[in-house]
Specification:
The protein has 340 residues and is of the alpha+beta class. The protein folds into two domains: 178 residues, Sandwich (Jelly Rolls), CATH 2.60.120; 142 residues, Arc Repressor Mutant, subunit A, CATH 1.10.10. The chain contains 14 helices and eleven strands. Helix 4 packs antiparallel against helix 5.
Length: 340
């Protein structure tokens, strides 16, 4: 039978009650390796600095969260998972870690995960971290399945916040929760920040591809810029700029590159159809408020002014517009300029 220390005081639950209560707090998880009538566990909801948390334990050998569970839940958050007592193991994102009392792991609720209980005293405490808020604050997207050993300064401070929230006898102040949440995020960042020497990870590449999609959808709006991109992607402006710097460019440069490519195609169409569309309208349709600014950037990019572009540089506007720095860097991400 699982053993609980003073941090948990709730009643033990059977299989169905445990799974149903956990679903309302954390989502769908499936105990395996034990008969349903032999299962016992507990789920005790908590509040940590305004963040949902849970004190949890079970006697099943294995608990899984599958792709189907994730699809049904639509979860968009992480968990800071503390091994309160006993030993366990966890696998996520092709990483397998062994956890002992005092260790902390970061779990991505949007990825499958499996927990293995290695002894009867295993007990966990989990704090829910909203993905958008966490990534925006940290400036990077942490990797689920990561683990840090107990005893690190950040780990001790983070567990202290969690434990104190459980033993403050209702004396916490809601007005301080926003500030305390930032402290939690900072400690998570201190624990799980990636090394600068690490290569660009697959999750980061996926995030960058999504950012490029956001830009492709919005570049024609003259009010659209890096601040709007960061807000739409749910990350900080600092992290947005870092992602582009890692690829040898800037967000603003990429936005202007798409605008100019689109302008070249519109000018080519204008010349072929003989519409006589005012060049200022072409500029505005591509996201430029000021024609002089548009003309200057256009000349710098293609070597001739917008009005002469179709006649003087057919190759540039016939579908092979010279790619800028960032377009070449993005070729691996299948990000192409938008069709006219």
């Amino acid at each position: 039978m699982p053993q609980r220390d003073s941090i948990s005081s709730t009643s033990l639950l059977n299989f169905e009650a445990w799974r149903a209560l956990l679903r309302t707090i954390c989502g769908r998880y499936n105990p395996e390796g034990i008969e349903h009538n032999a299962f016992i566990g507990w789920v005790r909801p908590m509040n940590v600095c305004g963040l949902a948390a849970v004190d949890i334990g079970w006697n099943a050998h294995r608990v899984e969260r599958t792709h189907r569970d994730i699809r049904l839940d639509g979860a968009e958050h992480y968990y800071a998972l503390f091994q309160v007592s006993g030993k366990s193991a966890m696998t996520q994102n092709d990483q397998a870690v062994q956890l002992a009392a005092g260790d902390v792991a970061l779990v991505d609720a949007a990825r499958p995960v499996t927990y293995f209980r290695n002894d009867n005293s295993a007990q966990w405490l989990s704090v829910r971290l909203p993905r958008r808020s966490l990534v925006s604050h940290l400036g990077f997207e942490p990797q689920g399945g990561s683990w840090r050993p107990g005893g690190t300064p950040a780990g001790r401070l983070l567990f202290g916040l969690v434990h104190d929230a459980d033993t403050d006898n209702g004396l916490s102040f809601a007005s301080a929760d926003d500030y305390m949440q930032l402290a939690v995020y900072d400690l998570v960042g201190a624990l799980f920040a990636p090394s600068d020497s690490q290569p660009i990870s697959r999750p980061t590449s996926k995030l960058f591809a999504r950012i490029c999609g956001v830009i492709k959808d919005g570049f024609s709006d003259p009010a659209f810029g890096p601040v709007e991109v960061a807000a739409e992607a749910g990350i900080s402006l600092r992290y947005l700029q870092k992602l582009f710097m890692e690829r040898g460019s800037t967000c603003s440069e990429f936005i202007y590159s798409l605008r100019l490519d689109h302008a070249a195609r519109l000018l080519r169409r204008r010349a072929l159809l003989g519409t006589g569309q005012p060049l200022s309208e072409v500029a505005y349709a591509c996201g430029f408020r000021d024609y002089a600014h548009f003309a200057r950037r256009f000349r710098n990019r293609f070597g001739n002014p917008p009005g002469a572009h179709a006649g003087h540089d057919q190759s540039a506007v016939g579908g092979t517009v010279r790619a800028g720095t960032i377009e070449s860097a993005l070729s691996a991400h299948d990000v192409q300029p938008p069709a006219a």
